[in-house]
Amino acid sequence: MYRWCFDQMAEEEEHVVSLVDVLEEDEELEEEASAVLAASDAEHCSYSQGYVKRQALYACGTCCPPGGAAAGVCLACSYKCHEGHQLYELYTKRNFRCDCGNSKFKDLTCKLSPDKEEVNSGNKYSHNFFGLYCTCSRPYPDPRTRSDQMIQCVVCEDWLHGRHLGAEVPDSVELQEMICESCMKKNQFLWTYAAHMAGTAPPNQQNPVKPEVKPEVKPEVTAEADDEPSAKRLRLQGEPEGEEPKGVCRLKELQQIGRSRSQSGATFWPSGWRSRLCTCADCQKLVSEAGAPFLLDETDTVLAYETKGKTLERTNQSAADPLMSALDRLNRVQQLELIHEYNDLKTELKDFLQSFASEGKVVTPDDIRQFFEQQQSRKRRRANGQLYGP
Predict the structure, then answer these.
(1) How many independent structural domains does the chain possess?
(2) Which of 190, 232, 279, 351 is the most exposed place for a label (fewest CB within 10 A)?
(3) Which residue has the higher pLDDT, 147 or 220?
(4) How much is the CA Rg of the chain, to the nearest whole Å?
(5) Is residue 143 assigned to a domain?
(6) Buried-state track 357-373, b at ≥16 Cβ within 10 A, e below 16
(7) Of 100, 130, 160, which residue is a domain's last?
(8) What does the alpha-carbon distance between residue 274 and residue 300 come to, in Å, rounded to a whole number?
(9) Which residues of 322-342 are buried (b: 16+ CB within 10 A; e: fewer)?
(10) Sign of the C-alpha dihedral, residues 356, 362, 368, 374?
(11) Residues 70 and 59: beta-carbon distance below 8 Å
Protein backbone atom coordinates (compact mmCIF):
# COMPACT_ATOMS: atom_id res chain seq x y z
CA MET A 1 0.00 0.00 0.00
CA TYR A 2 1.48 3.31 -1.06
CA ARG A 3 0.96 6.11 1.43
CA TRP A 4 3.14 8.21 -0.82
CA CYS A 5 4.98 11.18 0.61
CA PHE A 6 2.38 12.16 3.22
CA ASP A 7 3.04 9.67 6.02
CA GLN A 8 3.60 11.68 9.18
CA MET A 9 5.74 10.20 11.93
CA ALA A 10 5.35 11.41 15.49
CA GLU A 11 7.35 10.29 18.49
CA GLU A 12 5.70 10.27 21.94
CA GLU A 13 8.92 10.78 23.84
CA GLU A 14 12.57 11.53 23.24
CA HIS A 15 14.86 8.61 22.57
CA VAL A 16 18.46 8.10 21.63
CA VAL A 17 19.24 7.16 18.04
CA SER A 18 22.48 5.76 16.73
CA LEU A 19 24.51 7.07 13.81
CA VAL A 20 23.42 3.99 11.87
CA ASP A 21 19.77 4.92 12.45
CA VAL A 22 20.40 8.44 11.17
CA LEU A 23 22.23 7.20 8.08
CA GLU A 24 19.54 4.63 7.30
CA GLU A 25 16.80 7.23 7.64
CA ASP A 26 18.75 9.66 5.48
CA GLU A 27 19.23 6.97 2.84
CA GLU A 28 15.52 6.17 2.91
CA LEU A 29 14.59 9.84 2.49
CA GLU A 30 17.03 10.20 -0.40
CA GLU A 31 15.54 7.15 -2.07
CA GLU A 32 12.01 8.54 -1.69
CA ALA A 33 13.11 11.89 -3.07
CA SER A 34 14.83 10.29 -6.06
CA ALA A 35 11.72 8.20 -6.76
CA VAL A 36 9.64 11.38 -7.02
CA LEU A 37 12.14 13.76 -8.64
CA ALA A 38 14.59 11.67 -10.67
CA ALA A 39 12.12 11.04 -13.50
CA SER A 40 11.51 14.79 -13.88
CA ASP A 41 13.96 17.26 -15.44
CA ALA A 42 15.48 19.62 -12.87
CA GLU A 43 17.21 21.83 -15.46
CA HIS A 44 14.73 22.46 -18.26
CA CYS A 45 11.12 23.63 -18.16
CA SER A 46 8.80 20.82 -19.25
CA TYR A 47 6.46 23.18 -21.16
CA SER A 48 7.88 22.24 -24.57
CA GLN A 49 6.93 18.61 -23.92
CA GLY A 50 3.24 19.53 -23.83
CA TYR A 51 0.98 17.75 -21.38
CA VAL A 52 3.50 15.48 -19.69
CA LYS A 53 2.19 12.03 -18.84
CA ARG A 54 3.38 12.30 -15.23
CA GLN A 55 5.80 14.70 -13.55
CA ALA A 56 6.69 16.24 -10.20
CA LEU A 57 4.73 19.47 -9.71
CA TYR A 58 4.57 22.44 -7.35
CA ALA A 59 2.14 25.29 -6.76
CA CYS A 60 3.42 28.73 -5.77
CA GLY A 61 1.50 30.37 -2.94
CA THR A 62 3.52 33.55 -3.41
CA CYS A 63 2.63 34.07 -7.07
CA CYS A 64 -0.82 32.44 -7.00
CA PRO A 65 -2.27 32.84 -3.50
CA PRO A 66 -5.66 31.43 -2.42
CA GLY A 67 -8.55 33.36 -3.96
CA GLY A 68 -6.77 33.68 -7.29
CA ALA A 69 -6.30 31.32 -10.23
CA ALA A 70 -4.77 27.91 -9.55
CA ALA A 71 -1.50 27.13 -11.33
CA GLY A 72 1.24 24.53 -11.28
CA VAL A 73 4.95 24.68 -12.11
CA CYS A 74 7.39 21.96 -13.09
CA LEU A 75 10.40 20.87 -11.05
CA ALA A 76 12.92 23.02 -12.96
CA CYS A 77 10.79 26.17 -12.64
CA SER A 78 10.34 25.56 -8.91
CA TYR A 79 14.15 25.79 -8.64
CA LYS A 80 14.92 28.51 -11.18
CA CYS A 81 11.87 30.82 -11.09
CA HIS A 82 10.38 30.38 -7.61
CA GLU A 83 13.38 30.15 -5.31
CA GLY A 84 12.46 31.52 -1.89
CA HIS A 85 8.73 31.45 -2.62
CA GLN A 86 6.07 29.59 -0.67
CA LEU A 87 5.76 26.34 -2.60
CA TYR A 88 3.19 23.60 -2.14
CA GLU A 89 4.57 20.19 -3.06
CA LEU A 90 1.99 18.39 -5.19
CA TYR A 91 4.00 15.16 -5.51
CA THR A 92 3.08 14.09 -9.07
CA LYS A 93 0.20 14.88 -11.41
CA ARG A 94 -0.73 13.35 -14.76
CA ASN A 95 -1.24 15.10 -18.11
CA PHE A 96 -0.11 18.52 -16.93
CA ARG A 97 1.65 21.35 -18.75
CA CYS A 98 3.79 23.83 -16.84
CA ASP A 99 1.99 27.14 -16.13
CA CYS A 100 5.03 29.10 -14.94
CA GLY A 101 4.94 32.66 -16.25
CA ASN A 102 1.63 32.45 -18.13
CA SER A 103 -1.36 34.77 -17.60
CA LYS A 104 -1.98 33.34 -14.12
CA PHE A 105 1.29 34.90 -12.96
CA LYS A 106 0.88 38.68 -12.88
CA ASP A 107 4.41 39.75 -12.00
CA LEU A 108 6.59 36.82 -13.09
CA THR A 109 8.09 35.74 -16.39
CA CYS A 110 9.43 32.21 -16.72
CA LYS A 111 13.23 32.29 -16.93
CA LEU A 112 13.43 28.92 -18.69
CA SER A 113 10.57 29.08 -21.19
CA PRO A 114 9.21 32.63 -21.49
CA ASP A 115 7.11 32.11 -24.65
CA LYS A 116 4.01 30.33 -23.37
CA GLU A 117 0.32 30.41 -24.19
CA GLU A 118 -1.79 32.42 -21.77
CA VAL A 119 -3.64 29.39 -20.40
CA ASN A 120 -3.13 25.62 -20.51
CA SER A 121 -6.74 24.58 -21.10
CA GLY A 122 -5.96 20.86 -20.72
CA ASN A 123 -4.71 21.17 -17.14
CA LYS A 124 -6.88 20.06 -14.23
CA TYR A 125 -6.70 21.81 -10.87
CA SER A 126 -7.95 21.17 -7.37
CA HIS A 127 -7.66 22.65 -3.88
CA ASN A 128 -4.26 20.89 -3.68
CA PHE A 129 -2.85 23.83 -5.66
CA PHE A 130 -3.60 26.08 -2.67
CA GLY A 131 -2.08 23.71 -0.12
CA LEU A 132 -5.39 22.10 0.91
CA TYR A 133 -6.14 18.39 0.89
CA CYS A 134 -8.78 15.76 1.59
CA THR A 135 -12.55 16.15 1.90
CA CYS A 136 -11.89 18.33 4.95
CA SER A 137 -9.84 20.84 2.89
CA ARG A 138 -7.11 21.16 5.49
CA PRO A 139 -3.39 21.97 4.98
CA TYR A 140 -0.62 19.45 5.46
CA PRO A 141 0.80 19.18 8.02
CA ASP A 142 -2.24 20.42 9.92
CA PRO A 143 -1.39 22.11 13.24
CA ARG A 144 -5.01 21.88 14.41
CA THR A 145 -5.57 18.14 14.11
CA ARG A 146 -3.84 14.94 15.14
CA SER A 147 -1.37 13.31 12.80
CA ASP A 148 -2.79 10.89 10.26
CA GLN A 149 -1.48 9.20 7.16
CA MET A 150 -2.64 10.63 3.85
CA ILE A 151 -3.25 8.49 0.79
CA GLN A 152 -3.63 9.64 -2.80
CA CYS A 153 -6.63 8.67 -4.92
CA VAL A 154 -5.41 7.41 -8.30
CA VAL A 155 -8.37 8.97 -10.13
CA CYS A 156 -8.79 12.53 -8.79
CA GLU A 157 -5.21 12.55 -7.36
CA ASP A 158 -6.34 14.32 -4.19
CA TRP A 159 -4.77 13.30 -0.88
CA LEU A 160 -7.15 12.04 1.81
CA HIS A 161 -6.70 11.37 5.52
CA GLY A 162 -7.03 7.72 6.42
CA ARG A 163 -9.81 8.59 8.86
CA HIS A 164 -11.84 10.27 6.10
CA LEU A 165 -11.83 7.40 3.62
CA GLY A 166 -14.95 5.71 4.97
CA ALA A 167 -13.08 2.41 4.89
CA GLU A 168 -10.42 0.62 6.88
CA VAL A 169 -6.94 1.03 5.44
CA PRO A 170 -5.56 -2.46 4.75
CA ASP A 171 -2.11 -3.50 5.88
CA SER A 172 -1.50 -5.66 2.81
CA VAL A 173 1.33 -4.36 0.65
CA GLU A 174 -0.40 -5.96 -2.34
CA LEU A 175 -3.22 -3.41 -2.19
CA GLN A 176 -1.28 -0.61 -3.80
CA GLU A 177 -3.79 1.84 -5.26
CA MET A 178 -6.78 3.62 -3.70
CA ILE A 179 -9.87 5.13 -5.33
CA CYS A 180 -11.86 7.46 -3.10
CA GLU A 181 -15.60 7.09 -2.57
CA SER A 182 -16.39 10.23 -4.58
CA CYS A 183 -14.56 8.91 -7.65
CA MET A 184 -16.15 5.47 -7.27
CA LYS A 185 -19.62 7.07 -7.32
CA LYS A 186 -18.73 9.11 -10.40
CA ASN A 187 -17.59 5.91 -12.15
CA GLN A 188 -20.29 3.42 -11.20
CA PHE A 189 -18.86 0.63 -13.40
CA LEU A 190 -15.91 0.39 -11.00
CA TRP A 191 -18.15 -1.08 -8.27
CA THR A 192 -18.56 -4.22 -10.41
CA TYR A 193 -14.80 -4.68 -10.58
CA ALA A 194 -14.49 -3.79 -6.89
CA ALA A 195 -16.74 -6.69 -5.93
CA HIS A 196 -14.21 -9.05 -7.49
CA MET A 197 -10.87 -7.32 -6.98
CA ALA A 198 -10.91 -4.57 -4.35
CA GLY A 199 -9.57 -5.70 -1.00
CA THR A 200 -11.42 -3.59 1.53
CA ALA A 201 -15.05 -2.71 2.16
CA PRO A 202 -16.31 -0.07 4.62
CA PRO A 203 -15.89 -0.86 8.34
CA ASN A 204 -18.20 -3.64 9.61
CA GLN A 205 -19.21 -4.44 6.02
CA GLN A 206 -15.99 -5.99 4.81
CA ASN A 207 -16.34 -8.88 2.40
CA PRO A 208 -14.10 -11.87 3.19
CA VAL A 209 -11.21 -12.26 0.79
CA LYS A 210 -10.66 -15.93 -0.01
CA PRO A 211 -8.11 -17.71 -2.18
CA GLU A 212 -8.73 -17.35 -5.89
CA VAL A 213 -10.62 -20.18 -7.58
CA LYS A 214 -11.05 -20.85 -11.27
CA PRO A 215 -14.76 -21.23 -12.00
CA GLU A 216 -16.00 -23.76 -14.49
CA VAL A 217 -17.69 -21.73 -17.20
CA LYS A 218 -20.21 -23.15 -19.64
CA PRO A 219 -20.50 -21.94 -23.27
CA GLU A 220 -23.18 -19.57 -22.02
CA VAL A 221 -21.41 -17.29 -19.55
CA THR A 222 -22.49 -18.41 -16.07
CA ALA A 223 -20.85 -19.11 -12.75
CA GLU A 224 -21.34 -21.90 -10.23
CA ALA A 225 -23.40 -21.00 -7.18
CA ASP A 226 -20.50 -21.38 -4.82
CA ASP A 227 -18.05 -19.32 -6.88
CA GLU A 228 -15.82 -17.08 -4.79
CA PRO A 229 -14.58 -13.69 -6.07
CA SER A 230 -11.75 -14.13 -8.54
CA ALA A 231 -9.16 -11.61 -9.60
CA LYS A 232 -8.93 -13.30 -13.03
CA ARG A 233 -11.45 -12.79 -15.83
CA LEU A 234 -13.95 -15.56 -16.53
CA ARG A 235 -13.15 -17.73 -19.52
CA LEU A 236 -15.46 -19.32 -22.05
CA GLN A 237 -15.24 -23.09 -22.29
CA GLY A 238 -12.35 -24.14 -24.49
CA GLU A 239 -10.75 -20.69 -24.48
CA PRO A 240 -6.96 -20.85 -23.84
CA GLU A 241 -6.00 -18.97 -20.71
CA GLY A 242 -4.29 -15.66 -21.41
CA GLU A 243 -6.23 -14.96 -24.61
CA GLU A 244 -9.19 -12.61 -24.71
CA PRO A 245 -11.89 -13.70 -27.13
CA LYS A 246 -13.09 -11.10 -29.59
CA GLY A 247 -16.50 -9.64 -28.87
CA VAL A 248 -16.55 -10.73 -25.23
CA CYS A 249 -16.91 -7.95 -22.65
CA ARG A 250 -15.23 -8.78 -19.38
CA LEU A 251 -17.31 -6.18 -17.51
CA LYS A 252 -20.59 -7.74 -18.71
CA GLU A 253 -19.33 -11.18 -17.67
CA LEU A 254 -18.80 -9.94 -14.13
CA GLN A 255 -22.13 -8.14 -14.10
CA GLN A 256 -23.91 -11.39 -15.05
CA ILE A 257 -22.42 -13.13 -12.04
CA GLY A 258 -24.28 -10.63 -9.92
CA ARG A 259 -21.75 -10.35 -7.11
CA SER A 260 -22.02 -7.01 -5.35
CA ARG A 261 -20.64 -5.08 -2.41
CA SER A 262 -21.73 -2.06 -0.43
CA GLN A 263 -21.23 0.99 -2.62
CA SER A 264 -19.68 3.26 -0.02
CA GLY A 265 -16.22 4.06 1.18
CA ALA A 266 -12.87 4.09 -0.60
CA THR A 267 -11.64 0.97 -2.39
CA PHE A 268 -8.13 -0.49 -2.44
CA TRP A 269 -6.83 -2.34 -5.47
CA PRO A 270 -4.12 -5.01 -5.90
CA SER A 271 -0.99 -4.75 -8.01
CA GLY A 272 -1.74 -5.18 -11.71
CA TRP A 273 -5.50 -4.64 -11.34
CA ARG A 274 -5.64 -2.28 -14.30
CA SER A 275 -4.60 -5.09 -16.65
CA ARG A 276 -7.75 -6.97 -15.60
CA LEU A 277 -10.13 -4.25 -16.76
CA CYS A 278 -11.99 -4.89 -20.00
CA THR A 279 -10.57 -3.18 -23.08
CA CYS A 280 -13.36 -3.93 -25.56
CA ALA A 281 -14.56 -1.02 -27.71
CA ASP A 282 -17.58 -0.34 -25.49
CA CYS A 283 -15.48 -0.27 -22.30
CA GLN A 284 -12.84 1.95 -23.86
CA LYS A 285 -15.63 4.38 -24.78
CA LEU A 286 -17.02 4.09 -21.24
CA VAL A 287 -13.78 5.06 -19.50
CA SER A 288 -13.08 7.76 -22.08
CA GLU A 289 -16.48 9.41 -21.51
CA ALA A 290 -15.80 9.18 -17.75
CA GLY A 291 -12.56 11.11 -18.30
CA ALA A 292 -10.49 8.22 -16.99
CA PRO A 293 -8.82 6.49 -19.99
CA PHE A 294 -5.64 6.34 -17.89
CA LEU A 295 -7.22 3.49 -15.89
CA LEU A 296 -6.46 1.20 -18.84
CA ASP A 297 -2.80 2.25 -18.82
CA GLU A 298 -0.56 0.28 -16.46
CA THR A 299 2.30 2.73 -17.00
CA ASP A 300 0.15 5.55 -15.59
CA THR A 301 0.68 4.29 -12.04
CA VAL A 302 2.85 6.17 -9.57
CA LEU A 303 4.70 2.89 -9.00
CA ALA A 304 5.74 2.85 -12.68
CA TYR A 305 6.84 6.49 -12.42
CA GLU A 306 8.82 5.85 -9.22
CA THR A 307 10.47 2.78 -10.72
CA LYS A 308 11.56 4.85 -13.71
CA GLY A 309 12.97 7.50 -11.38
CA LYS A 310 14.91 5.00 -9.28
CA THR A 311 16.34 3.36 -12.41
CA LEU A 312 17.49 6.72 -13.78
CA GLU A 313 19.00 7.64 -10.42
CA ARG A 314 20.98 4.40 -10.22
CA THR A 315 22.20 4.87 -13.79
CA ASN A 316 23.32 8.44 -13.09
CA GLN A 317 25.03 7.43 -9.85
CA SER A 318 26.93 4.64 -11.59
CA ALA A 319 28.07 7.05 -14.30
CA ALA A 320 29.27 9.56 -11.69
CA ASP A 321 30.81 7.03 -9.31
CA PRO A 322 34.63 7.55 -9.23
CA LEU A 323 35.12 3.85 -8.46
CA MET A 324 33.11 2.82 -11.53
CA SER A 325 34.97 5.34 -13.68
CA ALA A 326 38.30 3.96 -12.45
CA LEU A 327 37.18 0.39 -13.13
CA ASP A 328 36.36 1.27 -16.73
CA ARG A 329 40.01 2.20 -17.31
CA LEU A 330 41.45 -1.05 -15.91
CA ASN A 331 41.83 -4.54 -17.31
CA ARG A 332 39.86 -7.41 -15.77
CA VAL A 333 42.63 -8.55 -13.39
CA GLN A 334 43.10 -5.01 -12.10
CA GLN A 335 39.34 -4.58 -11.75
CA LEU A 336 39.07 -7.69 -9.57
CA GLU A 337 42.00 -6.60 -7.41
CA LEU A 338 40.49 -3.15 -6.87
CA ILE A 339 37.07 -4.59 -6.02
CA HIS A 340 38.66 -6.97 -3.48
CA GLU A 341 40.62 -4.11 -1.92
CA TYR A 342 37.48 -1.99 -1.70
CA ASN A 343 35.43 -4.78 -0.10
CA ASP A 344 38.20 -5.56 2.40
CA LEU A 345 38.45 -1.90 3.41
CA LYS A 346 34.69 -1.63 3.81
CA THR A 347 34.56 -4.75 5.98
CA GLU A 348 37.46 -3.65 8.18
CA LEU A 349 35.99 -0.17 8.64
CA LYS A 350 32.66 -1.66 9.63
CA ASP A 351 34.32 -3.96 12.18
CA PHE A 352 36.36 -1.05 13.49
CA LEU A 353 33.29 1.12 14.06
CA GLN A 354 31.33 -1.80 15.49
CA SER A 355 33.90 -2.20 18.26
CA PHE A 356 33.18 1.36 19.39
CA ALA A 357 29.42 0.80 19.21
CA SER A 358 29.59 -2.38 21.31
CA GLU A 359 31.61 -0.59 24.02
CA GLY A 360 29.51 2.59 23.89
CA LYS A 361 32.49 4.72 22.92
CA VAL A 362 32.51 7.86 20.78
CA VAL A 363 34.56 7.76 17.57
CA THR A 364 36.97 10.70 17.38
CA PRO A 365 38.87 12.12 14.40
CA ASP A 366 42.07 10.67 15.90
CA ASP A 367 40.51 7.21 15.89
CA ILE A 368 39.65 7.50 12.20
CA ARG A 369 43.12 8.85 11.41
CA GLN A 370 44.71 5.94 13.28
CA PHE A 371 42.57 3.43 11.39
CA PHE A 372 43.72 4.69 7.98
CA GLU A 373 47.34 4.89 9.14
CA GLN A 374 47.11 1.21 10.07
CA GLN A 375 45.67 0.47 6.64
CA GLN A 376 48.58 2.25 4.95
CA SER A 377 51.06 0.37 7.14
CA ARG A 378 49.53 -2.97 6.21
CA LYS A 379 49.58 -2.04 2.54
CA ARG A 380 53.30 -1.20 2.71
CA ARG A 381 54.10 -4.48 4.47
CA ARG A 382 52.21 -6.45 1.83
CA ALA A 383 54.14 -4.60 -0.87
CA ASN A 384 57.38 -5.66 0.85
CA GLY A 385 56.31 -9.27 0.99
CA GLN A 386 55.17 -9.25 4.64
CA LEU A 387 51.73 -10.72 4.05
CA TYR A 388 50.85 -11.39 7.70
CA GLY A 389 50.76 -9.46 10.92
CA PRO A 390 48.74 -6.54 12.26
Answers:
(1) 2
(2) 351
(3) 147
(4) 27
(5) no
(6) eeeeeeeeeeeeeeeee
(7) 130
(8) 10
(9) eeeeebeeeeeeeeeeeeeee
(10) negative
(11) yes
- pLDDT per residue over 22-67, tens digit each? 555 555 656 666 567 877 899 999 999 999 999 999 999 999 999 9
Using the 3D structure, point to which of 93, 113, 130 is the last residue of a domain.
130
Taking CA atoms, 319 is separated from 28, 270, 335, in Å, by: 21, 35, 16
How many of the other CB atoms lie within 10 Å of CB of 234?
A: 20
pLDDT of residue 23: 53
Contact 154, 179 (CB under 8 A): yes
Q: Encode pLDDT of 258-315 as tens digits.
A: 888 889 999 999 988 999 999 999 999 999 999 999 999 988 988 888 888 777 766 6
Domain holding 113, by residue range, is 27-130
Does residue 369 have a pLDDT over 50? yes
CA distance 157 to 170: 19
* Closest to 53 in 3D by CA, of 368, 298, 223, 353: 298
Instruction: Indicate yes or no: pTM above 0.90.
Output: no
Q: Distance between alpha carbon 199 and the CA centroid of its chain, in Å?
A: 20
Side-chain-side CA neighbours of residue 38 (13 Å):
20
Whether the predicted pLDDT of 111 surpasses 90: yes
- Is residue 235 assigned to a domain? no
| Poorest-pLDDT segment among 154-158, 224-228, 327-331 | 224-228
Are the beta carbons of 162 and 2 closer than 8 angstroms? no
Residue 152 lies in a domain: no
Residue 350, amino acid: K
